[in-house]
Prior knowledge:
Blueprint: E1 2-7, E2 10-13, E3 18-26, E4 30-39, E5 46-51, E6 57-59, E7 67-72, E8 77-82, E9 91-100, H1 102-105, E10 111-114, E11 118-123
Parallel strand pairs: 2-11
Antiparallel strand pairs: 1-3, 3-8, 4-5, 4-9, 5-6, 7-8, 9-10, 9-11
Amino acid sequence: QVQVVESGGGLVQAGGSLRLSCAASGSAYSINTMGWYRQAPGKQRELVAAITNGGDTDYADSVKGRFTISRDNAKNTVYLQMNNLKPEDTAVYSCNADYQLYSDYCKGVRRISWGQGTQVTVSS
């Protein structure tokens, strides 16, 4: 009952920047952690960055110092500012949201929704 939509991907040269957006919508009692993952061809999906509703963040070692995740709780939207992009950053970037419905809350049930992904291509 929560839908996630990503935007902002594209083609950029090495050293350039992109900003990805992830908007969550629908009915939810609460949305907790939201995060960005990426998957390159032939590789498994990996965590890029995540942020809790309290503002705590987590980053993959490969992007620390280059990427910044932020969150607008009022809009249920997270952003990923990607600077100094490298060819190895090329991947499909997907956003997810960890959330609970009202009926789940008292039971401790948690759910996850994924977006369709947005392609980021970095040329050398």
